[in-house]
Amino acid sequence: MNRFWSILFAIVPLAAFVVLSMVCLKLVPLSTMGLPQPINAPGQSIDFLFRLVHGLCAGVLFFTSITIVWSLWQSRSAAGGTRRAAYIKSNLLLELAWTAIPGALLLWLAFYQMEVWSDTRLNQPTQIIGQETVAVPPLVLVKARQYGWEFHYAGADQQIKTADDVYIENLLVVPANRDVVLELESRDVIHSFFVPELRLKQDIVPGMSHRVWFNANPADQLEILCTELCGEGHYRMRARMRVVAPATFDSWLDAEARKNQPAEFQ
User: Fold this and answer.
1) Could you tell me the strand order of the sheet in which 140-145 lies?
2) Is residue 109 in some structural domain?
3) pLDDT tens digit string along 90-147?
4) Does residue 13 sit within a domain?
5) DSSP state of 264
6) Are both 81 and 140 inside the same structural domain?
7) Is 184 among the domain residues?
8) pLDDT tens digits, one per residue of 7-28
9) Domain count, the chain
């Protein structure tokens, strides 16, 4: 019976390792189960961190599974009986090893990912105006509500939350290869702003303003999703997103600005 369990414990982690490898390497038939191809540099770095962490987890799974398999296999004596397990009160070296090694790996990962975290969450893009370096101002004020998205573009004054804001509903158009800053707010409950191709996800808490930023390659037909359960209509809370050439974006925004904007969104 022990041989049966040892074989079973060998097959399960092996199957898990194969599935994980096929997803990470985008091999058929599991090539579509991962996230879509990223369209920005931080997205590629985040994907590498995902693969790194999954690879470490797969290695730990393989090592522990082999240990269990070997123990089960060896517990059966040549005579067909079962060996009695030896009672060991403690093993200081073993306890230090299984505590220090995972701790060291986690500490290394914490420091290794700091640059990606800083670029995507801490260091807002800057620009030079005259001789002064200032933060890039928000291009769009994103307001989440049950169950849709409002986008308030900065008008001629280049500032959001002013009288000349340009209001668009459920469509976010931004310039490609340019630093874009969004300011996120909620009109009611907690929502979450998620664009898979940007690897960008930020919860939106009522009463708070959150800023996110990115610099993306041209792309069309992207989806903005709410990934926080926000009510019975949560499943239909989505918007379209397009990343277009800067000249195309400027023309599009000028055309939208000439339209009559609803007074309640000024």
Assistant:
1) 166-169, 148-153, 140-145, 180-186, 210-214
2) no
3) 888 988 988 999 899 999 999 999 999 998 889 999 988 888 899 999 999 999 999 9
4) yes
5) G
6) no
7) yes
8) 777 787 778 778 877 777 777 7
9) 2
